[in-house]
Structures are given as C-alpha cells and as structure tokens.
Amino acid sequence: QPSLPPALCQELAPAQSTEQAEPMSVLGGSSDVQARASLPFTHTGSSWGRHRSLVGHGPSSSSSTPGAEKREKQYQAHQGFGDHHGGVTSAHTYFYTDEAKCDQHMETFLRCIDASSGSSEDGFSAIKLTALARPQFLVRFSEVLVKWRRFFHQMATEQGQAGWAVLDTKLEVEKLQEALANLGIMSKAESQQWLAGENVGMSGTVDLLDWNSLLDSCTKLSRPLLIPNRKTGQLEPLLSRFSKEEELQMKRVLQRMDVLAKRAMEKGVRLMVDAEQSYFQPAISRLTIETQRCFNRSQPIIYNTYQCYLKEAYNNVTGDMELSRRESWHFGTKLVRGAYMEQERERAAQMGYEDPINPTYEKTNEMYHRCLDYVLEEIKHSQKASVMVASHNEDTVKFTLRRMMELGIHPSDKKVCFGQLLGMCDQITFPLGQAGFPVYKYVPYGPVNEVLPYLSRRAQENRGFMQRANRERDLLWKEVKRRLLTGNLFSH
C-alpha cells in the first residue's frame, strides 16, 4: 500500500488549525490535482413515477396554515434572516424568484456537469437545492419531517428509552398501538391494519427508519393526526397536510434532481448535494436520499453532505447509512464541518430555540472524526460506501490517512477522496496527489462576475490560516527549490 513520502509527513506537521467552517458551494472538484468544474442540470424527461410520494396533500397552504404560530420555532420564517448571506462567507446562496429561475439554475448545473466530465474521468459536480426549490417549501417540509421524528422519540421516552442511540431505539408494536389509541389518534384495530399495510412492525418492534417510512401513508389518512398539547391539553394537528401547490413543488424539485442525476450518470460524473442551513437540511437530506435510492444501486452517483458542526451529525450519518444497508444502495457522502455557524447561532438566539451547533470547535472535530471513522469502517466491511473528506484541517487529513492504513483501505480503491478549495491549502492538496490519493480542488463555475466575489471571500472565511502565512511561504520556497534541482520547474 502506498504510504506518504517523508516530505508530506513534515508538511502535514502539527500546526494548530483555527478553521471554524468548511466551505460549501456550487463548485466542482478536481482529482489528481487538476482543477475540475461542476454544474447544474435541465429536465429532458422525468422518471418521477419511480419516486414515492413523500407526503400527502390536503386543504392547508404553506403560508396561511391555521395555527402557524404554533409551528416549531426553528422552522418559522424570520424577517431578519430572509437574506441567507448573513454571517456566511464561504458558501454561495440563492434567492428564490420563480420556477423559471429554478429551471435556469438547473441548466447551469447541467453545463457544469458537462464541463466536469470534459476535464476528468471521475469528476464531481456540486449543487444546492435552494437553487432548485422554493426555500419556504424546504423549511415547511423540514418541519414536517422533524415533528414526525420527535413524536417517535416522545413515545420512545414514555417506553423508557430516553437518551438511547438512534438505531437502538425501538418501539414495541403493542405499546405503540396502545399509545396511539390512548392519544385518540387511531384505534388498535386501525393501527394494526395501518402497520400491516406498510409491512412495518413484523418483528414486534418499530425503529426510527420504520417510523420514517410511515410518514407518506400517515399524511394521507382520511382524518388529520391530532395529539394533545402537553401544556394546554388542547388537541393539535401533529402534521399539517401539504397543499396541492406544495405537492407540485415537491414533484418539480425531484424532477430537476432526476434530470441532473441522469446527466451525471451519463457523463460519468458524481453529483454532490451541498448541505445548507439547519432549517432547510431535513428536507434537503430526504430529497437527496430519494434520489440516492434510484441512482446509487450499482455505484455511488449521488453524494449527500453532512455538516459535522451539527449536534445531530452522527445520528444522521448512522441512520442514513443503515437505510442504505437495508435497501442495498451505495452510501455516498461528503463530510464537512459547516459554513453557517454564525448565522445559525444568531438565529437560534433571536428566535429562542436550542443552538443546533456543537458548543466548541473541539467538539466539532470529535464529531467529524467520529462520523468519518464510522464511514471508513463501513467501507472496510461492505465496500458499499464512499466518502469525500472535505477539509482544510491537517489533523483530520492525518487521521484519515492513519485509519485508511489501519483498515487496509487502498487509495486505488477510490472509496476515499479528499477535497480543498481552489486557492487554499495547497500544502495538503499537492502532496496527497503526489502520493497517489484521489484529491480534488473545488472550482467555482459560472459567469466571472459571479465567481469572483466567491473567490474574494477566501481570505475572510478562515482568518486563522493567515497566522500560518510564514509557514506556507517557507513551503512554497522549498517547492521552488525542489523543482529547480529536479529540472521540473513547470510541472508537479
């Protein structure tokens, strides 16, 4: 197995990183240290019929639903955060204009996929779902998903399973049916018929993945699910149904993702769906998983992104990977630290909900390495997982290399790749490529007037790197001397 040359070990020396956020944007990757582009897509025919409905629709609307004031605080609109750029320097953001603009973004993404394909044999393209869907829809869909999940954990707590690991938490079917009957949601006979119809609970228990699979049928029940408010005692709808317009928005975004995924598969490009703000993320992940189900059957075409500065990151990674095991599709993931920390914390403080971000940078590092180790173990044992380690943190890169060696994961397997931004951390990127590891540079794609501001923010986003300017200068001088001595001044 190739090992890093001594020079790389020195260049990845233990300098303390002050990095606070991994960048995420509509960028392309590059492998073997050659820049690549990445783009959006257009719709040339839908396989929408293959996608299961994710929620049912009903008479309520997204913006004027009765009882909107009772919605989860995190998933309420807030005038002060209408501009998603606030507190974000490292990620491109989109503003919703209309569906035609979403289609234009898709066309741009398609051209990016083509550009990535033309520049390398195994390129990536990265897309943002806020470019392809109405943000209000993503927020509302996220609220539905989170409420459904919390209802599961509420019942698990009542069964004495508070604080259990996500995949270890299981509701006993008998107790679940009793709880639903006691809450007046449905009779035991009705719940028995409901679970049997969905092929859930045959083992005598229902876990979170089983529970999530029930969401579609639950939203289509003839009457809304009402549960008592623990404070007021009044019955409130657990899930408000989607309007026909919201169902149409769901269909449109899945169609756009379908078109992009088809183009990526046709061109031999892997498609990464970037993570965004936490109040969008449940919907983004669910839509991404629906696409993975279709396109990751034989190889990882679609990659989901997990932000490890989130407290729920490990639960999200382990839950989604278990789903991929059960359904036999390839788990493709990009791990980042996160790009929206300041905005997330300010919003949580102003709106009065729990800060979703880990309390310290050290905790985020621990979360990143924990998630990464879980994926690497899966690669060793099943070969049906792939990961991009998108990090500028030298300790994280060294951790990855050490674990790959310990687990016998060879660079030529191409199950693990690395990614850094164009213009940053070349002292990590180039030695990795020279040592035979798949490594990519993220390159903005689009009109010059749009990508230049993105590149100009490189100096702002990780101010801690400026503290190592002298070290990088020394490394650059060493590289110049090496090339002069070897006669390779203009090559790598």
TrEMBL record:
**One record GO biological process:** L-proline catabolic process to L-glutamate
* The protein's Enzyme Commission number: 1.5.5.2
Q: Where is the composition biased (Basic and acidic residues)?
A: 68-83
Residue ranges annotated as coiled coil are: none
Keywords from the UniProt entry? Acetylation, FAD, Flavoprotein, Mitochondrion, Oxidoreductase, Proline metabolism, Transit peptide
Q: Tell me the cofactors it needs.
A: FAD
Judging by the UniProt lineage, the source's domain of life is Eukaryota
| Reactions performed catalytically | L-proline + a quinone = (S)-1-pyrroline-5-carboxylate + a quinol + H(+)
Q: Where in the cell is it found?
A: Mitochondrion matrix
Known role: Converts proline to delta-1-pyrroline-5-carboxylate.
Q: What is this protein called?
A: Proline dehydrogenase
Q: In which pathway does it act?
A: Amino-acid degradation; L-proline degradation into L-glutamate; L-glutamate from L-proline: step 1/2
Stretches assigned to the Proline dehydrogenase domain: 169-468
Pfam families the UniProt entry points to: Pro_dh
One GO MF term? proline dehydrogenase activity
Which family would the database say this protein is a member of?
Belongs to the proline oxidase family.
| Residue span of region Disordered | 1-83
- Species for this entry: Cyanistes caeruleus
